[in-house]
Amino acid sequence: MKRRDILKGLTILPLSTGLVSKASAIGLTNTPPTPKKQERDLFKELGVTPVINASVTMTFLSGSLMLPEVLEAINSTSHDFANMYELQDKVGAKIAEMLHVESAMVTSGAACAILLSTAAAITGTDHEKIKLLPNLPGPRPEVIMQKSHRYLFDQAVTTTGAKIIEVEGNDEMDKAFNERTVMALFFNAAGKHSVTHEDFVGIAKKHNIPTLLDAAADVPPVENLFKYQKIGFDLVTFSGGKMIRGPQSAGLLFGRKDLITAARLNHSPNEAPIGRPMKVNKEEMFGMYAALKAYLERDHKKEWQDWLDRAKHIGTQLEAVRSVKTETVVDPGPANAFPSLKVTWDESKIKIKPEQVVAALKNGTPSIVANGGKDHLTVGVVLLRPDQVDIVAGRVKSILQQAV
Fold it and tell me: What does the alpha-carbon distance between residue 399 and residue 379 come to, in Å, rounded to a whole number?
């Protein structure tokens, strides 16, 4: 499943950290909830439907639920002003330290990072070019991409005024470089690579041209945060609001110091560059730092087991319905590479199609977003709050039982 093609939650709870048992990890604890004072319900006030995300991290579903550490960082820093230049300096330095790179910055998502990377490759630190972008005089700058890597978000490249040059294979890529080439972009989640990661980097380095790898949705595994700069990519971007579980509108861009310096000059709080409309507020910067720190410190093996336990728990309930079979599957990635539950049934016994189940889940109360193929239903488990696991299992089971 491709990222960005596919929630706002109610109470924000961790998926695995702070859970006291396997039962609580899948939402089965019998401990009564602590009474809460009456809070303003903005969903109700605005008439917005809260959604349970039994799918994957998608922007139109508001990404993922922020970690408690992120909410604490946002709330604790919202009461004072900060110099944004200093904050980006300090946050970027800490992120670079955590990721073992020369430099880093917080962007307004991975798409912004693509634009800023392209701008940095075009302008460097030339303030006149920064001011003129995207209307530089002369021939358009060129960015090399594999033909199979073209995707919706490469519009961020052309927004800078650059032109995309499509290539297939090593020889064609090697011949595509010229005096107008400023960057080479690798889309990590593309279905096919006609040039491998290593060859892509090697050919670009031969021509002394910087490379950017877009890996927006490509954690887990956590190792991916370090893998691609080791291969030699000059810049790497990840979304902050997906499985890192930072602010939805934040992202990470990291790599070569000179390029990050140029990217920052093309970004807010500078007042006239192309990236000015893509500002990141101070709370998002603090929140992104807190999210990355928490993600790197997480027990990833335990979290993975929690996800498997959730899938097994839901599957056990669904298999109580005649002819239903379930299987835990892991997307091969690199995007959304985590477990989900594949559900199938005999439609001669349960007279409903997977797409009809998806529609019934979406239109019910609460609204649940899942995915369906021609012959199966896919129930995502990684974005569910613990208390939502049994809700999802119960709703799917009920819909299937009613179709018997």
Answer: 14
